Amino acid sequence: MAMAPATTTTTRHSVISMLLFFLLTTTTPFFFNAHASSSSSSSLVEGVCHESQNYSFCIQAMHSDPRTSSAKTHMDLAVISIELGISNSTKTLNYIARMYRSPKEDPQQQSALKGCLWGYDGAVSSFKSALMELKVDPLTANYDAKVAGDGAVYCSGCMDSAGIKDSVMSDGNCFTSSFSNIAFVITNYLG
Fold first, then answer.
1. Alpha-carbon distances, residue 93 vs 1, 81, 87, 109, 120 (angstroms)
2. pLDDT at 4 over 50
3. b/e per residue, 128-141, with b = 16+ CB within 10 A?
4. Which helix (DSSP H) or strand (DSSP E) does residue 186 occupy?
5. Burial 20-57 (b: 16+ CB within 10 A, else e)
6. Mean residue pLDDT across the chain
7. Which of 65, 78, 111, 187 is the residue whose CA sits 20 to 30 A from 179?
8. Is it the case that residue 19 has pLDDT exceeding 80?
9. Is the pTM of this model over 0.85?
């Protein structure tokens, strides 16, 4: 799911919402510390992010992890991006699980939330599998990184069909898709 450059108000709001969600859910205080990275890791990150679907998000997300400033290889960046994907998709999964357990949801929404739980269980599993396969089988890690985004796409469809308008879930879907794309781009360099 390619995102167009942030030229429209809606796209800008989406990017801002995604970044806000990431800021609120990340545990690191280094989100905007892009200047702390060395020139070699900076050029490595820049090269990868230019190939991603959302350059701005990629740069900010990668630099949200303090390890990025000392990353010297694509393998280093792959570990960071996949771990960010695991963290984000797990937080989104937990949020959806809390909503699903809420007794006030109507049956159609419950069914959609159950679909989202299924999708995010797959996303978390795919990110974790990608991490385990990085050094053993980079091609499989690349595939797992790519399909991790499928859970978010599936959840988005479930939300649309049930008329669920939840900015946290929508942002989580965008983040998971973006982290999947970033990890896919990076792992392309490994095999």
1. 20, 18, 10, 16, 6
2. no
3. bbbbebbeeebebb
4. helix 167-187
5. ebbeebbeeeeeeebeebeeebbebbeebbeebbbbeb
6. 84
7. 111
8. no
9. no
pLDDT digits (tens, 9 = 90+) for 48-103: 999 999 999 999 999 999 999 999 999 999 999 999 999 999 999 999 999 999 87
Lookup result for tokens 């796409």 = 153
* Nearest Cα to Cα of residue 82 among 32, 123, 49: 123
Torsion angle in degrees (nearest 10) through CA of 144, 120, 3, 168: -150
95 and 124 Cβ atoms separated by less than 8 Å: no
Which of these, 140, 74, 11, lies nearest to 62 by C-alpha position? 74
